[in-house]
Amino acid sequence: MEHLGAGALLAAWEAGLASDDGGRALLLHALARPGADAGELLSVPLGARDAELFAVRRALFGARLEVRTECAECGEDMEFEFDADGLGTARAAPDGPLRVEADEWAVEFRLPTPADLAAVESAADDDEARAVLLARCTLRAEHAGRPVADRPLPDHVQRRIAAVSAESDPLADVTLNVACPACGKATRAELDITSYLWAELDAWARDTLLDVHLLATAYGWSEPEILALSPLRRRYYLELCADA
């Protein structure tokens, strides 16, 4: 990912400061797909998008992630390392719609995308969000061979759709089972790569701008000149400034 230069990263960070979570996810995904427009990025299945974000994260900061969570049983703060090296590759997206059949029901649907998540943000509760998401992703539903447009899908059909979606797009929900060192109970920790990567980019950008400030003050160089230095040479000049 040669295009992930300091200038491009700082531009994405600057734009993200004024964005919400959805906007930041879009900016981060654009780093993985330079030149892609918003329509293309919003139509990528969630697991495929997150696989590309894990690849960006690996290119920038390595494969090992430090994860912090709280034990659901005793409240103990936990911190552990997770190797995400295998999460940078998603399965190929299905060529066409997915399909489930249960009893006399047959439903064709597609995988959720970032555009679908944006559409459910205003839902009043989880039940409404699930209903809106299901309605957006369902392409065709039949019962006993007849098209159904205004009848809710039975719960067991909905569960089957959720299971097939998870199987077809596993990186859409990366959840870790972590054993608490205090009580021994297992806690499920959801790994949200968009939030994680944004936090890292934010910390990196602030550190980088501090480096620019120090080197510009010491040597009179411009920001582009400083960013063009390799990280190793930049660190060496900073050490010289500190020794002066």
Provide an overview of this structure.
With 244 residues, this protein is α+β, with helices and mostly antiparallel strands. It has ten helices and eight strands. The strands form three sheets. Strands 3-4-5-6 form a four-stranded antiparallel β-sheet. A two-stranded antiparallel sheet has the order 1-2. A two-stranded antiparallel sheet has the order 7-8. Strand 7 and strand 8 form a beta hairpin. Helix 1 (6-17) runs antiparallel to helix 2 (21-32) and helix 4 runs parallel beside helix 8. The longest helix has 27 residues, at 193-219. The two termini are 36 Å apart.
Structural key phrases:
single chain, 244 residues, alpha+beta, four-stranded antiparallel beta sheet, two-stranded antiparallel sheet, 10 helices, 8 strands, 17% strand, elongated
Stretches with pLDDT under 50, minimum 5 residues: none
Shape: elongated
The oligomeric status of these chains comes to single chain
The number of distinct β-strands equals: 8
Largest sheet data:
4 strands, antiparallel
- The portion of residues assigned to helices is 40-55%
Total count of helical runs of at least 4 residues: 10
Structural class: alpha+beta
What is the N-to-C succession of helices and strands? HHHHEEEEHHEEHEEHHH
End-to-end separation: 36 Å
Indicate the radius of gyration in whole angstroms.
23 Å
Walk across the major sheet and give the strand order. 3-4-5-6
- The proportion of strand residues reads 15-25%
Mean pLDDT, nearest integer? Answer: 91
